[in-house]
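cron nightly-structures :: item 1 of 1
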Amino acid sequence: MKILFFIFIFFIQITGCSYQPPVWTKQGATQNDLAADRYECLKNSQKRVVDSSAGCDGVIVSCNSKYSSDVVTDKTIFEACMNAKGWNLTFINTEDNRPKQSLPQTSSGPPRSPNKFMFRSKSEPDDFINERLLCAGSNFEICMQNRGWRVVAKSDMDANAEECSRSSKSESGQRIESLFKKCMLSKGFDLNSKYMNELEKISDKARARCNNPEFNFYYSKTPCLTNGKMDFKYYADDSKLNEKDKSNFVKVAASINDELNERIALDRQYVTFKKRSNLMEKILLPKLNDNLRDLLIRKINWGQFNRRRDEIFSEYLTELKNNSTD
């Protein structure tokens, strides 16, 4: 019972981050105060990182090695330094240019902007959260562009994601992540990252389950994918799980449970997806398991199972949408 958690909402959350620029605020402070404190905190939180792939027994100076040296900023140290000096990160209401909301220390991601997002190729989910803190108090857009981010219209991103999702589906209707990434790359969106590669592995396992002949009995009764609106025929099925299919049903239920736990564990590694992982753990996992159990013990028929499956998925999407605007 593969549920497609991430189509367009998922794509936006991974690749598009709110364009709304933050500013550092402190009561009674001037721009000169901000510049001075920001400079000092940057200086105290930066370090030089050397990367070499010399292959010369560790000797760098005397061999023709590939060598690079970059200055990186420790976001945690920088933010703690600014907070210690009395500064708080605040988002500006673009309609009236007044402070809209302060960013909590444990923010799960940027507030959503209805029209614009920032995108950078090969970014990990938390990159934007970390780097926008470093650009606050400066010319935000230029600073972020210097770090490789570009402004993208939400409508363009939605259209590209929809087109690539359609063109990358398998015969079962499931999106093949490798084809989706290839399509998006052709449109200027390079989605290759550690996160996306791990997600692709999980999706490959789910697709293999959907195509496993051993589970044909299951997917003939309930679709591999659901968007919360199954065909009526699935609701009208008043038959119950056959006794002969119970052993294989336990296998498919275990596979579904493993997939959900893998997705939760992956999302939990990132501040950006903290709320989503919590919702999957608190809403999806227990309710889907309850639904599977009731079907196994023949408490409900397939039609009831399918209606509840759609209801659970719709509830999850509603909660996800509500939480994304917090």
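cron nightly-structures :: done
The CA atoms of residues 79 and 105 lie 9 Å apart.
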